[in-house]
Description:
Elements: H1 2-15, E1 49-51, H2 56-66, E2 70-74, E3 83-88, H3 89-97, E4 113-114, E5 119-120, H4 125-135, E6 139-143, E7 149-154, H5 155-165, H6 167-171
Parallel strand pairs: 1-2, 5-6
Antiparallel strand pairs: 2-3, 3-4, 6-7
Amino acid sequence: MPEDRTIDRELEESDEAYFDGAEGLQERSFDTRLLREPTSVLPVRKPLVLSRFHSVTDAIRSMQSEHRGVVLVTEDGTMHARVVGIFTERDVLFRIVDQGRNPATLPLADVMTSEPESLRDDQTIADVLRMMSVGGFRHVPIVDAEGRPVHVVSVRDVVEFLVEAFPREVLNRGGDRTSEREGG
């Protein structure tokens, strides 16, 4: 695949020393080999899976009880079927609440994103980051060769992986901190 060669070339070039102009000539410590790791090294959990016939309320309750922001939709609501859709907390806001729809009677099929973009389970963290960046996604479904769900990678999974890989650099990083918290 020509795209893979481009990724490898970019990563090889980025393995060379980086320089921070503001700090003078200081080499950065980020090891881009981590980006070549398969998605299986990320701290992910088994995905929530429902069928297109489940109600939006079913999906919301599942997401709340498992503290997740996404449900994968498969043909029969099991992990053994192909992914046909994705439903996220953003869908709740923009496709239901914002439009005044009743989640109790609304099937997932009416508000899910059909045929979502996904990655195979043998692809890399760099592939996930590219998809998130280019597509503006917070969640990327990871599927096997038959399109069945393996797991979902969230932005949080990638951040946790990087923090674990570079705990000293992240935890010792100074910066402006405010006393007021907003969000996260």
